[in-house]
Specification:
- This protein is of the alpha/beta class.
- The chain folds into 3 domains: 6-139, Response regulator (Rossmann fold), CATH 3.40.50.2300; 153-250, no CATH class; 260-437, Alpha-Beta Plaits.
- Helix content is 38%, strand content 22%.
- It contains 13 helices and 19 strands.
- It has helices at residues 25-31, 45-52, 73-83, 101-104, 118-123, 161-172, 178-189, 226-250, 260-277, 291-298, 300-317, 349-366, 396-413; strands at 6-7, 17-22, 37-42, 59-64, 88-93, 110-113, 128-132, 135-139, 149-152, 157-160, 195-197, 205-209, 212-218, 281-288, 323-326, 331-336, 382-389, 418-420, 435-437.
- A 6-stranded mixed beta sheet has the order 1-3-2-4-5-6, with helices on both faces.
């Protein structure tokens, strides 16, 4: 999620404070050589939230209000505090900025301007730097209180700050904001018949954001729904943007499979859940045998076809709860994930997984790849290793390491082989006599 940020050349962990900048290029230029500050430049609110999630000591977030951005700085600030309440969130004010701290309420811990120095930033502890007309002032570090009402004059609506916290939580979890937003509007306006429609309705008010149409708000009778539509449009646009960012951050653009970033995060989470609920979790790592030779002989478009078709085949074979990930060039990982346990209680997780692995191998080998011509059917094979938690690894690194070892064992035995770990048979050691699927 955070791979496109641009940290300073030195190690941020060696600095006195980590500063995450959203915009604020002037501060980056002025502070980049100061060893007391570890600068991290983010290009979106999504990247800011991702960086805050990395525990690396004292952190300050400085947001430069981009008037062309669809992101809401107050929503970003709320999300940041939801991830880590100890992070300070500050606003970069320019000469033409009309931000009034009294109207901003608890959205900001303070304000800096482009002339703020590192000394002023560091000396502000436990206060934060606020500059008014060029003169520094001190302001106590404030925290967002759930009972605080924040009024947005441009929207004409007032909401408890707890509403922003709940919407932000849903946003970060990838949940829909339509129902909770409409419910909030009903509560705050008293119009219990408010609904959001995707098609035009009589008396409906268009809901849009910066020219992007999002639906029609209706059910207000003779009430003016302009402010409500504007508020709803802002949240729905932010949700759509975050959904697009999440997709870009966690999926492979060529094949549509989950990428390595998603794989690493999901595997850790899935193992933690499996440990608590005493469930099994299997990991299949494999690559395509002699993949480079297909690129060399038939060209890279043929190689791309092999990768995309492989993902389609995998997706068709695995179960809805499993995860297909492309973690390298021709390297894939499948997480066999059963969050509710086996559908048939007496069945065993590993047994069904071995059957799926066998189907995967056969499907790929029998598939026709048009760009490979006459060789396109029956020529492609895979080799890999299947490891199962908790027998083959107690955490993500150890499970990956075991699956890697099994993959190397598969290669040493020839092509078209999948070696299994200890779950193949209780007490069985794959290191001395690996089970495998193959033609031998």
């Amino acid at each position: 999620m955070t791979g496109s940020t641009h940290p300073a050349p030195r190690d941020v962990r060696d600095s006195s404070v980590r500063v995450i900048l959203l915009g604020a290029q002037e501060l980056e230029q002025a502070w980049r050589r100061d060893e007391r500050v570890g600068l991290v430049r983010a290009r979106s609110g999504f990247e800011v939230i991702g960086e805050v999630g990395r525990p690396e000591g004292r952190t300050i977030v400085i947001i430069d209000q981009d008037r062309e951005s669809k992101e809401r700085p107050d929503a970003i600030a709320t999300a940041v505090r939801h991830v880590d309440p100890n992070v300070r969130v500050m606003h970069l004010r320019r000469e033409d900025d009309s931000l009034d701290l009294r109207l901003a309420g608890p959205a900001w811990d303070g304000v800096v301007d482009v002339t703020t120095t590192v000394d002023e930033l560091l000396d502000a502890d436990p206060e934060v730097v606020v500059k008014v007309n060029g003169a520094p002032e001190a302001r106590s570090h404030s925290r967002l209180q759930p009972t605080t009402e924040v009024r947005r004059e441009d929207e004409g609506l007032s909401f408890p700050a707890s509403a922003d916290i709940e919407l932000t939580r849903r946003l970060l979890a990838g949940e829909s904001l339509v129902d909770p937003c409409v419910a909030l509007l009903r509560e705050r306006t008293g119009l219990v018949g408010l609904t959001l429609a995707s098609e035009p309705v009589d008396g409906g008010v268009p809901v849009s954001h910066r020219g992007h149409h999002l639906g029609w708000l209706s059910g207000g009778g003779d009430s003016d729904l302009g402010d409500a539509a504007a508020w709803l449009g802002s949240w729905l646009a932010l949700a759509e943007q975050q959904s697009q960012l999440r997709t870009a951050a966690f999926t492979d653009p060529l094949t549509g499979a989950w990428n390595r970033r998603y794989f690493d995060r999901f595997l850790r989470k899935a193992i933690d859940e499996a440990r608590l609920e005493r469930r099994c979790l299997s990991l299949l790592l494999f690559d395509i045998d002699d993949f480079k030779s297909y690129n060399d002989r038939f060209g890279h478009p043929a190689g791309d076809e092999i990768l995309t078709e492989t993902v389609k085949l995998l997706t068709a074979v695995v179960r809805p709860t499993d995860r297909v990930c492309r973690i390298g060039g021709d390297e894939f990982a499948i997480l066999f994930h059963e969050p509710d346990g086996p559908r048939n209680p007496p069945s065993q997780h590993p047994g069904s997984i071995f059957e799926i692995a066998h189907r995967i191998r056969n499907q790929i080998r029998s598939h026709h790849f048009p760009r490979l011509g006459q060789e396109g059917r029956g020529c492609l094979t895979i080799s890999g290793g299947l490891a199962t938690f908790p027998w083959d690894g107690h955490d993500a690194p150890s499970l990956i390491e075991h699956a890697d070892r099994l993959t190397l064992e598969s290669k040493s035995q020839g092509k078209n082989v999948i070696c299994f770990g200890n779950a193949a048979e209780p007490g069985y050691s794959s290191a001395t006599n690996p089970e495998h699927l193959g033609d031998h």
